[in-house]
Design brief:
The structure holds 2 protein chains of 2 kinds. By secondary structure, chain A is α/β, with parallel strands linked by helices. Chain A has 15 helices and 5 strands. The chains are: A alpha/beta, B alpha/beta.
Chain lengths: 373, 919
């Protein structure tokens, strides 16, 4: 193994990339606009929820409840009748429909605990499950407030002081931006190395290299470092200028430590790219493989939904994926300000996964070369 | 014939690639009904000129007229397109390697709108006359160079062109196949005397037989006329000499004939290359069969043979790229093996075809190789200067190799192979496609290296005059060495005049003629059938529909389908992969969060406080961790992400409650992941209220509940994540996979060269795109069927609404998904960019902006905008409506509108971005 070969071959990779303006444009897009769009699109805890109210009571209390749903948490509620409710929910216009029965106010004041019906469109995933809880507490609060004017205090004076640490406002753009950075880091690392290898194979240049005093290990390592460098730089700039700058996400921990973690992740992801490239026999096959690998990596690594909510089998399975550890590491460092003493297990896991992938890729790389006619 | 108008007229045509000038104010009339040859060194503009006449390349300056009309006008190009046939440079570059011979010709026949019976008759006639008939089912990628060129000719001749344009058709083809190729052209011309043929060639002996020649140099026409004219004008004996005499003074002076000093007799002592019973097998196929030879140091050893006879494989074994199945190869006495780095440093290898980095400039390529061969850093600059001067590359140091003519690229390859002063050169057809002047200067260098520097040269070639220059040659056929001796001895042994005759004799003896070429009996029959078929096409031409002809479109559909079928891995991967993804995502994404960790800092330690904690730990949502000791502990464990929730119960909790005093319980939620934090928040608040109600009831206070809120989860009453997820994941998958499949279809043709068929055949861009799209739409529909079956029968997600509505929506949706892929494909230049572009332009919008998890109505900013127009959003509404909400077309028609708009918009954008001519 010669370091200078690895260096020069890597420089060659960088030069090749520099010649592809479309690719450079896509990289810039992936780390600026795409991050911005992903971060700002995510609604906050309760945001613009669409609600309709079927008011069969038309009392001051029902009016008071309707008034409690105001923007930006809700899209101003529309008052509809019973017949409209089904049609509107079917068409997906409303996520929630609150049905206030006749004589509601009278029954509340009489202490008869009347039933108020909240219809939820359960196909609307996040909003359906999380926001129905809010609506319940808003209704309960309004009813209690209304009743308090007429009735004695019945509640126990115990208050729950809830505070969210690391992200007091539970601002999703903090999370969304970094997760999108992570997604694009993985995507780019796999595509750049893998596709570059397949292109060399399709154009016959890899064979040319192998006739020289260069080992497969050197060729592979050169691709790894060059592409990892590109992605790491893009990631760092994006974190500083887009995430911290434009999106004004406060980063609690050390960006340097995070970038160090990124390098570990890149080692694993670029190795995976090479591995996939040795499995795929042509660029179209590689393109398809990328989708099949990336989608689970992005959706199940804990960046989109919490790992706690996944079935045990998938949770365990996903521990093999570098993304899972990278997401954990990113959350710990960037939001919770954790130091190396806390995140070393993730570093270790990434290093292990990377080594295994690297070894597998190298073995396959060697064997596919010898079978090349 | 003399009265005929010229078939093509060029008037003051100038063409530039960047700063480089390919054609410089060329004015030329090409006579009709003749065999016209373009001769001249590489990069003088021959290929550019042909591409302009064929309409494959866009005109920049000047005027080109073909068949009396202006080729700058799209209408005329379209009108005369069917009368022109163009065969680009490079072996089988416009053919489809996975398609068989028959399928390739059939594809072109359909493009020209031939009916079935007509096509079959013509293909049969063409295959017969070219002798390809016995191999009709063989994939084009597995043909030898000669057969590929014959197939290319068949494809070009399928529509009876009046103008046949051949760009170096015999470059890289062995002499026997070359001879057969020209015989074939002569027969075809005999059958169709009105046809004009324009050929660019590097072989002067071929040009000698043409009717009329155009000699070109540096983008200009030097002279034109019959071969005898040219010879007479220059007073030269051969055409080669005549051409050199026509060159400008400066270039002429640079040319000297190749002189080969005899080898010193003592040179045979050391053996540089030795092969003993070398055998290489690929599966059942024996590529190299017991080949043995010894090459002495400083010897120039020529390797001759028809394409695919095992020359390249033998060379690859010698370089260590391939490991021999049997036998032994030694370089400088050391056995060759895959890891023998030391030996490789002494060898320079030039592989067949150009294999340098096209993204690096000439200088960067040289530098990279110098460094990889460990030329001392201090000496690199001097060495590069020396090489560039020697190989005449000094003026193009900062040019990209793709912008260089073939001949100069080959010189660059040699310079690269020589950069580390190797003791041995292994050169695989280094002079294919290189013009005579450049070839001579190349050989002077080789001779100098061999004689002066004692470099051993192992070279393969198709040029007989080059073979004659070798010290010894081997003739190879079908993996075996037929004869190995000095050129003179071989010629003498066969009792013939020239080495070429000896070569052909040798091959005939070995049975090569029977296998690959036309039996002599066939031409007569072919001549009869060809003109017979011609009139049938004539009326077809006039009825060509100008903008859209389903037959042309289906020709591309058929071809794409065949290619997809030849690569079953891709289709299988798409189908099985999507089901696996549905499974993984359907199960994996779940909004019921359970088993979240929490711990308590209990400063009260009473039964009441323990009861409060029990209320939480007893639920299925939380699992309790060891108690928190102090604030530091709390901080540390939350930072480590160990706790999702931390509670602090103040001292005197129970006492204060009893006295009715205000008490506050502290709760910290890990906000690092907002979605999870919200869920935790909701759970804790609920449990807190529940506990208070229980306490109140215990204390005998009035019923806490003033109102009973009954939540009904509609469409999914059991709140099963799977039921909510599956109808959402299907749209995601039907966007990602079909778009990725389609995304590579166009850009792949651009990268591999077959896009030229779009440029020169009457197919329109719309036919091309939709034709390519259809197979992927069909595959996506199959995919849809599979996903729905799995959803209903495996995941037991009920499909309650109208299946017909869902299917109709799916069809429109997958049209839009594949159109998205085509759009990206049309816009990009490289396959890498297409893959990356497709991934970032589909995954993010489809997974996050289309309502899979958060409804589009609640999104903000750019994401909301993208979400509103993205097809996935609307298809998702339909998918969920039909799966979960029992809806039909009447309820969902609003969602169809954006989908129906998306398809034509995307396809129109792709048509605009795709170019019908190379620029």
């Amino acid at each position: 193994m010669r370091l200078s070969n690895i260096l020069h071959l890597g420089v060659k990779e960088l030069r090749s990339l520099g010649r592809d303006p479309v690719m450079l444009g896509l990289i810039v897009y992936a780390f600026t606009l795409a991050i911005y769009a992903a971060a700002t699109a995510l609604p906050e805890a309760l945001h613009k929820a669409s609600i309709a109210i079927v008011d069969e009571d038309r009392s001051p209390l029902s009016a008071r409840i309707a008034d409690a749903f105001y923007p930006p948490y809700f899209i101003s509620p529309v008052v509809i009748d019973h017949a409209e409710m089904d049609a509107r929910m079917d068409a997906g216009l409303d996520t929630f429909a609150l049905n206030i029965p006749p004589h509601f106010q009278r029954d509340v004041l009489a202490g008869r605990a009347p039933v108020i019906q909240l219809n939820v469109d359960a196909t609307r995933m996040t909003q359906a499950f999380a926001d129905s809880g809010y609506i319940q507490s808003i209704v309960a609060g309004e009813v209690a407030g209304f009743a308090a004017r007429y009735r004695a205090e019945t509640e126990l004076p115990v208050e729950l002081a809830l505070r969210a640490r690391f992200n007091p406002g539970l601002d999703k753009s903090w999370f969304g931006s970094v997760m999108e950075v992570i997604n694009n880091v993985t995507l780019l690392a796999i595509v750049l190395t893998g596709a570059a290898l397949i292109r060399e194979r399709e154009h016959g240049t890899i064979e040319h290299l192998l006739a020289m005093p260069v080992t497969p290990f050197e060729i592979m390592t050169a691709k790894l470092w060059a592409m990892a460098l590109v992605v790491a730089v893009a990631c760092g700039l994006s974190l500083i200028f887009v995430v911290q700058g434009l999106l004004a996400v406060p980063i609690e921990g050390s960006v340097a430590l995070f970038l160090a973690g990124t390098l570990f992740h890149l080692f694993a992801a670029t190795s995976m790219g090479i591995f996939l490239a040795t499995v795929a026999r042509s660029m179209p096959q590689f393109g398809l493989l990328i989708i099949l690998v990336l989608v689970p990596l992005e959706m199940l690594s804990g960046g989109m939904t919490p790992r706690e909510s996944m079935p045990d089998m998938i949770r365990t399975l996903m521990l093999v994926a570098p993304n899972t550890h990278f997401v954990m590491l990113a959350q710990a460092i960037l939001y919770r300000g954790a130091g190396f003493s806390v995140v070393w297990p993730q570093f270790l896991a990434l290093a292990l996964i990377g080594t295994v992938l690297f070894a597998a890729a190298l073995a396959r790389f060697r064997s596919t070369i010898s079978s090349m006619a | 014939m003399t009265a005929q108008a010229p078939v093509a007229r060029l008037d003051d045509v100038t063409l530039r690639y960047g700063r480089q000038c390919a054609l410089d104010a060329v004015t030329l009339d090409i006579p009709a009904g003749r065999m016209v040859g373009l001769i001249g060194p590489d990069g003088v503009g021959k290929s550019s000129l042909l591409a302009l006449i064929a309409g494959a390349r866009a005109l920049q300056q000047g005027r080109v007229e073909v068949f009396g009309g202006d080729m700058g006008r799209a209408r005329h190009r379209h009108a005369v397109g069917p009368r022109i046939a163009y065969m680009p440079q490079g072996l089988g570059r416009n053919l489809y390697p996975t398609l068989s011979i028959f399928e390739n010709i059939d594809f072109f026949g359909r493009l020209f709108g031939h009916g079935r019976a007509q096509r079959e008759a013509r293909i049969a006639a063409l295959l017969d006359s070219t002798g390809l008939a016995p191999f009709a089912g063989r994939p084009a990628g597995k043909l030898s160079g000669g057969m590929k060129q014959k197939l290319g000719l068949c494809c070009a001749l399928i529509h009876d062109p009046d103008l046949l344009i051949l760009d170096e058709p015999t470059t890289g083809v062995d002499p026997l196949s070359r001879r057969h190729f020209w015989e074939l052209i002569a027969r075809i011309r005999a059958g169709r005397p009105q046809m004009s043929v324009v050929v660019a060639t590097a072989y002067m002996e071929e040009a000698e037989r043409f009717d009329w020649l155009v000699a070109m140099d540096a983008g200009r026409v030097l002279a034109s006329g019959t071969p005898s004219d040219l010879r007479a004008r220059t007073g030269a004996a051969s055409l080669e000499a005549a051409f050199i005499a026509l060159l400008p003074e400066a270039k002429r002076r640079a040319h000297r004939p190749v002189e080969i000093p005899p080898r010193a007799p003592d040179a045979d002592g050391e053996v540089a290359i030795e092969a003993r019973d070398l055998t290489m097998r690929f599966g059942d196929f024996v590529a190299v069969d017991k080949v043995s030879f010894r090459i002495g140091r400083g010897e120039i050893f020529g390797f001759l043979g028809s394409n695919g006879c095992g020359k390249t494989t033998t060379m690859k074994v010698l370089t260590g790229l391939l490991t021999a199945s049997e036998g032994e190869a030694r370089l400088f006495g050391q056995p060759v093996d895959g890891d023998g780095i030391g030996v490789r440093r002494r060898v320079g290898y030039m592989s067949q075809g150009f294999s340098l980095y096209s993204e690096l400039t000439v200088r960067q390529n040289l530098e990279l190789h110098a460094r990889l061969f460990q030329v001392p850093e201090a000496g690199i600059a001097a060495r590069i200067a020396e090489m560039t001067q020697r190989f005449d590359l000094a003026d193009v140091l900062d040019v990209l190799p793709d912008n260089l003519p073939l001949g100069r690229r080959q010189r660059l390859s040699l310079a690269v192979a020589m950069i580390h002063r190797p003791e041995m050169l292994i050169l695989d057809e280094p002079t294919s496609g290189v013009d005579p002047v450049a070839r001579d200067s190349f050989w002077r260098m080789l001779v100098e290296l061999a004689r002066r520097d004692k470099v051993t040269i192992f070279i393969s070639t198709h040029f007989m005059n080059e073979a004659e220059r070798c010290d010894r040659i081997s003739l190879m056929h079908a993996g075996r060495v037929l004869v190995s001796d000095t050129p003179a001895a071989i010629t003498a042994a066969h009792g013939v005049e020239t080495l070429e005759d000896a070569f052909v004799d040798c091959l005939m003896e070995a049975g090569a003629g029977a296998a690959e070429t036309a039996p002599d009996a066939v031409p007569a029959a072919a001549q009869e059938t060809m003109p017979e078929a011609a009139p049938v096409t004539a009326p077809g031409r006039t009825s060509f529909r100008r903008f859209f002809d389903p037959r042309r479109m289906f020709s591309y559909t058929r071809r794409e389908t065949l290619e997809l079928r030849r690569d079953p891995v891709r289709a299988t991967l798409a189908l099985i992969g999507s089901v696996v993804l549905l499974f993984v995502i359907g199960y994996g994404i779940n909004f019921d969060v359970e088993d979240m960790t929490f711990a308590v800092l209990d400063r009260d330690r009473t039964t009441t406080s323990r009861d409060y904690v029990l209320n939480i730990s007893g639920s299925r949502y939380f699992t309790e961790r060891p108690a928190i000791v102090d604030y530091d502990d709390l901080d540390r464990r939350m930072r480590a992400g160990e706790l999702s929730l931390a509670l602090e119960i103040p001292p005197g909790f129970a006492r204060d409650i009893a006295r009715g005093r205000h008490v506050e319980i502290g709760a910290w939620i890990d906000g690092a992941m907002p979605t999870r934090a919200e869920t935790v928040q909701g759970y804790v608040q609920g449990m807190h209220l529940h506990w208070l109600q229980m306490q109140a009831a215990k204390a005998g206070l009035a019923p806490a509940a003033l109102v009973d809120i009954e939540t009904r989860f509609r469409y999914n009453p059991d709140v099963k994540s799977l039921v909510a997820m599956v109808p959402g994941v299907i749209p995601l998958l039907l966007m990602l996979i079909p778009s990725m499949l389609a995304a590579l279809s166009v850009v792949r043709e651009k990268e591999l060269g077959s896009i030229v068929n779009l440029y020169v055949t009457p197919v329109t861009r719309l036919e091309f795109l939709i034709g390519k799209q259809l197979p992927y739409v069909a595959l996506a529909m199959l995919n849809f069927l599979l996903l729905v079956l799995f959803a209903v029968f495996f995941f037991e997600v009920p499909l309650t609404g109208s299946i017909l509505t869902l299917t109709a929506a799916t069809l429109i949706y997958v049209f839009s998904a594949t159109a998205m892929g085509l759009l990206i494909s049309a816009a990009m230049r490289s396959q890498i960019a297409a893959i990356f572009g497709t991934a970032i332009l589909t995954i993010l919008p489809a997974a996050q902006f289309s309502g899979l998890t958060d409804p589009v109505s609640s999104l903000e900013g750019m994401g909301a905008l993208i979400g509103q127009i993205y097809p996935t959003t609307h298809y998702l509404t339909i998918s969920r409506g039909t799966f979960s909400k029992a809806l039909g077309f009447a309820d969902l028609q609003a969602a169809f509108v954006p989908l129906l708009i998306a398809v034509p918009v995307l396809i129109a954008a792709s048509v605009v971005l795709l170019k019908k001519q190379e620029r």
